Amino acid sequence: MLTELSIKNFAIIEDLSVNFQNGLTVLTGETGAGKSIIIDAVHLLSGGRGSVDYIRHGASKLELNGLFVIDDMSNLFLLADKYGIDLTDNMVVLERIVTDKGKSICRINGKLVTLTILREFGNNLVDIHSQHDTYQLMSSQAHINLLDAYNSKEITSIKAQYHDLYKQLMHYKQEYNKLAINEQEAAQRLDLYLFQANELKEADLQPNEDVILEDEKTQLANFEKIFLALEETYYSLHGDQKGLEWVNIAQTALQQGADFDPFIKEKTEELTSLYFNLEEISFQIRDYKEQIQFNEARLNEVESRLNEIARLKKKYGTTVNEIIEYYEEVKQKIEVLENKEIHNEQLENEIAKYTTKVIEVGKKLRSSRKEIAKTLIKTVQLELKDLYLENAKFDVEFNVLSSDPSEDISENGLDKINFLLSTNLGEPLKQLEKVASGGELSRIMLILKKIFVKHQNISTVIFDEIDTGVSGRVAQAIAEKMYDVSMNSQTLCITHLPQVAAMSDNYLLIKKEEKKNRTTTNVSQLSLDNKVIELSKMMTGAKMTDSVMEHSKTLIDLSNKYKKK
Length: 565
Hints:
Elements: E1 2-10, E2 13-19, E3 24-28, H1 35-45, E4 61-69, H2 76-83, E5 91-99, E6 104-108, E7 111-113, H3 115-125, E8 126-130, H4 131-135, H5 140-150, H6 152-179, H7 183-203, H8 209-221, H9 223-237, H10 243-255, H11 262-291, H12 296-316, H13 320-338, H14 340-386, E9 393-399, E10 416-422, E11 430-431, H15 432-435, H16 438-456, E12 460-464, H17 472-486, E13 490-494, H18 498-502, E14 506-515, E15 518-525, H19 528-540, H20 546-564
Helix pairs in contact: 6-14, 7-13, 8-12, 9-11, 10-11, 12-13, 13-14, 14-16, 16-17, 19-20
């Protein structure tokens, strides 16, 4: 769950720190106060797309920090092991900075990570739903993902098997398509590859040759400096009144007191050891100095070879090792083109074999999905009644697009799945976008979120005004469903419905204030008495009456009774 959120220089927020608790937390406030800005900050923190437009006017960067506490069963432990991130005390700290230059800096528990890794962690920590996300329900891709998530334990192994086979099938198809070229083009490619192979063969490059030659060139080009350094070092150590002689004098002097003092004895031994080490180093420097010699011809030879390698790098790779790898690839391509018919036949056999395997496992996947769909339909049907959609019917449609199963193969299986709904008695089942109003879609979204939150292991769920367009008894039912969601995951909700606000365990009021000719946002945790006042304002506006206050208290009492139940 999200326990603390820190926001600096984000939109109209200058510096804000908000503490969150478990259960259902509502955020209310007047339009423009900054409720959605807080949700936008969480979205950005969890890996959402950033923009310099988010940075508060006059600031050079925005900073976001979020502290999450996770349980021992969280998927994040596997991710943390994968990326070498320490999750001490089951705590995760996400940090994101966006500068006015457009640079994005991301950290997890203090470790610098890419935005992709931050997003991967964020997707396992936070699930944000807005009105826009509600309309994503119309996507058949979303439907198949939701269906699979409903019973992931049963379907995961079959999906993994299918994806492995599908990946292999796509590989063979891509290789086959590469060979599907006309004879003239194949001959042109073969000529090119033969020329490249011959050029690289004659070059006879050796692994890391460019690195080795650059080191040798540096040594040859700086021979005079190297020789003088060696010579000066050697003669600083050897000879009258030089380094070794003085060290020897020092250790001889120290030996005179070694028999009388343990400290002097210890330091005498250390100094003697240092003397012999220095003497050995001086001999090695002398031998190396006498060994090296300047070879102008070799320098010219090295420079010529490096020029040749630089020419090849422009054509075949940035390093010698990359060029060698390319040479091996070219030899393989030559072999394939020279034996094109044989390779075509082999690829056709592999494609046929893996197509059969993919279809076989795809049918098992479809069978499992149909069993899962039966349970999902019953569950959704019960939830629809709770949200006063008594005459609504829900179904999961499996579309077979072709009589040939091989034509239906896709990354997700052989199935195209659609959620169907009928909201009125006597009306046929239709795809969601053709039958559901905005308010009905919000209810369907809430139903699915309540159902799936148990299976997705997400610690924090956020609803950003998805209850827009509903009122009356439906509003009360939505409040109850949101509380049900909060029983399994920490739930944050921006709402304008008093019924939802009354159901909250924690109530945060968002206010916009003006300080020093600038606008900023503040958040305050409301007591029970202030909660009653804010509920009354939501119902009648600024005007307060005793009857409205009593109605607010009654609404809270009814909510508490539902919670106890």
